[in-house]
Structures are given as C-alpha cells and as structure tokens.
Amino acid sequence: MSSSKVQMFLSLAFSVSVASADSAIWSAGSAYTIPKGRWEVGLFQPLRHGQTDRLEWSTHPLWNILIPNLSIKVAWPPLDNWTFASRHTLFYPTPLLRKITHEGKFGIISPEFTIPHMVSIRNELLLTRRLGRSGLMTGRTGVALGFASESLDERNTIDLPLVFPRLADFYSGYGVNIGLDILRRITGQIDYLIDADIILHPGISEAFAFEHKGLFIWNRSSQFRINFGYKLVYGEYPFGTQWHLFPLFDLQWGW
User: Hey, what domains does the chain have and what are their CATH numbers?
Assistant: First the structure.
C-alpha cells in the first residue's frame, strides 16, 4: 500500500469541516453512553441498554442466533473538553459460516473447507468533543484480535464488501481501525452525520479498506428517529480493488 494512497484517504477522512447535534441521548458512535435504564433498538441497529450512567451494552438480537455478539461501552473521566470512553466487542461467526458452507443454493463457502471455531475481540478508544452549541466530533481507534482453533485456508475467503475486512482478522491475526464521526444540526429536528473509517490488516496482501457514510437523521423525539443516506466502500480483495455504494435506511426506537 503506497504512502500516497494512505494520504489520499486520510485527507478524505478528515476534511469534513463542521459538526453539530445536541441529541447526545442517542449514543450511537460517540463516546457518550445512554442514560441509566434507557433502551434503544433499530431495524438494523443493535439493541442498546444503559446499565448505569457510565456503562452501556449492546447486541444484535437477531444475529445472535448465527453470530453471537456483545459490545460494552465504558465511559471514563473526561480529558479537558473531551468525553472519553472505551468500547469492547466480541463476536463468534462460526455458526453462520458453517451454515453457508455447502454446495447449491445459498452455499457461499465450498464444503471442502473446514470452518474452525473463531472469536474476534475488538477494543476501541473513543473521544468526543462538542463543537459550538450543538456539534459533536468523535475520533476513534481500535485493535481487533482474531482467534481460530486451527489455521484457515487462505483460499477460503468471503470476498464481499463490509464482510471481507471484518473476517480478515482471522487471517492476519489482528486488524487496526481509525475513524472520525462528525454530526451537524441542520434544523431543529434534522441532523446530518458524516463518518470515515480506515481498516488495516498488516501481514496480508489485502490490507486496506475504507468506509464512509453520510446520513440524514430526523429526530422525531427522544423515542423515535429515522435515518437515511448512503455508504461508500473501497476495499482490497483477493481479486483486486473495488468501490461499492449502498443505500442506508433505518428506524430507531428509544424508551
């Protein structure tokens, strides 16, 4: 991966100029944790719960059948004007991967390959700062460790956007991510979110992935909001590099 490529994507990731939004009650990707006792869930967002004012856990309940997963966010004492938190995520993709290992319809992995037990553990640091009266900027960095009960065959990959970078931890042993979120208030109830993430997997040839999304968020109330926008993905895959663009839509409820 050339230095010019890294510079180009870092420039894109950090060239967003302004941010705002005062609806920190929706914790999403910031260092804020949701208030004690609050619950949040979305069509595609995980179920979140404020265990205390400093501890929040989340899980994708439907995915738990095939990909058991759990994430915990812990708020730490602030650093000057920055809100500081750590997020710790564990997921176990083996049941899903074994489910799609067969020939014929919905078979994505050839049955000649054995799917071992695999666990990914990601630890991230999040720093959020208010910009103006209603702005939020969040920077994050993290390391993911991939553990497998036996070595994986390098030919056995799922070369799909969003999926490949998240399973690459098991081939490289670890991955590193850095990102930036900026949230801006457009009107009284409408926010705009821009984010950018770079995912690196040193040790394998397909080491680089870039993900960016833009979202309009209609905060109908503290109990309901609508998100719609797009996600742009660039990745290095075994067959080469490729761009993808996806629409995004979600409904979220809180109580």
Answer: 3-254 (2.40.160)
